[in-house]
From TrEMBL:
Keywords: Membrane, Nucleus, Ribosome biogenesis, rRNA processing, Transmembrane, Transmembrane helix. The keyword rRNA processing applies. It holds the Pfam family Ribosomal_S8e. Belongs to the eukaryotic ribosomal protein eS8 family. Ribosome biogenesis protein NSA2 subfamily. InterPro entries: NSA2_fam, Ribosomal_Se8/biogenesis_NSA2. One of its GO terms (biological process) is rRNA processing. It comes from Didymodactylos carnosus. This is Ribosome biogenesis protein NSA2 homolog. Residues 48-61 have a biased composition (Basic and acidic residues). It comes from the Eukaryota.
Amino acid sequence: MPQNEHIELHRKRHGYRFNHFEKLKKKEGRLPHILSKKAQTLRGIKIKSHEEKETKQRQDVPEGALPTYLLDRETETRSKVLSNSIKQKRKEKAGKWDVPIPKVKAVSEAEVFRVVQSGKRKKKAWKRLVTKPCFVGEAFTRKPPKYERFIRPMALRFTKAHVTHPELKATFQLPILGVKKNPSSPLYTSLGVITKGTVLEVNVSELGILFSQEQYFDSRGLFISTILSIPVLLNCCLLVSFWLWETVGLLKICAKRLKISRQKQQQQYVQDAEKKKD
């Protein structure tokens, strides 16, 4: 028998005390009065834990369970299946045109983060302050300062980048949409830390890049950053040869139209030459 069951063993050998059941009955009788007093006098988090039974608790619902108002509907329509398949094809196409990650010197955590001591006696050292430029989305909401592990200062949060087009040899200030890949660490990618060689997603709809007579590229583009040593500047260079799959589709259309126009010009030239001979 386990060591912690010595009371049960004693009861098996010698039985209960003569007043055991009487005391138990009196204790049960006192319980409602004790609970009533607690409900009237407790405050704050103690009353919250006391009334857990009365408050609504989130129940664990099995995966795939449908609510009652959706049971009479079809689980999956044909249009939904079609849209899912289209999305999957787009993902596969987009994977073909991935941006090459540059080989740069990795930035250590000691350089990116600074230890922030917290607690009443300043003995806790689990918080980190980001010392490099970073990107935070518009819909971002901070955790309570007490529980925030990685602190990203407002002064180092960038929303725009200076993007240079290598063919046009012009620089544009474009809004950043997200950090796609930081070659130094996946942690930096998730935090949106921007170091040298980071792949950024930037909105290029403002450039109005023309691919054919009436078609503009109005979407997102992938850019590779070549950030200078000064942390205030955020300079990037456009990867012209690595566009998203939508751009590649537009380029194919342009190539076809160019081919057709050249064939027409050649036919016209042949006809003009025959007329001159006659």
